[in-house]
Every structure is written in structure tokens, then in C-alpha cells.
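User: Teach me something about this protein's shape.
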Amino acid sequence: MKACKKCSMLSEDVDPCPNCGGELSKDWQGYLVVVDHSRSEIARRLNITVNGRYALKVR
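Assistant: First, the predicted structure itself:
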């Protein structure tokens, strides 16, 4: 899996990012699954507006 350097969304080695079109990186840490972004305080704090899998730190 790769993480987007712009939005941190994780994807299955698909360049560019399917969410925002950003560059992907294999160097990431942490894992977050957002099921309902509209009700999630964590998603709100991380500015996540789409449900999915996200990396907590991307380099």
C-alpha cells in the first residue's frame, strides 16, 4: 500500500492518488480507518472529507 503525500489516503499502488491526484509514497506510518467522516471528531481534526483508509504520517 502507498499513502498520498497530500491527503494521506492509502491506496493499492495506484498512481496518482484516487482521492486528490497527489503523489504517493511507500514511506508512511500509522493507520486510520474512517467509516463516517461527518460524525468523526478525528476526521474533522485531520480535515478528512472522504471515508477510507488513511496514514497518520507520510514522508
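Now, about its shape. The radius of gyration is 11 Å. The longest helix spans residues 41-45. If you'd like, I can walk through any region in more detail.
User: That's plenty for now, thanks!
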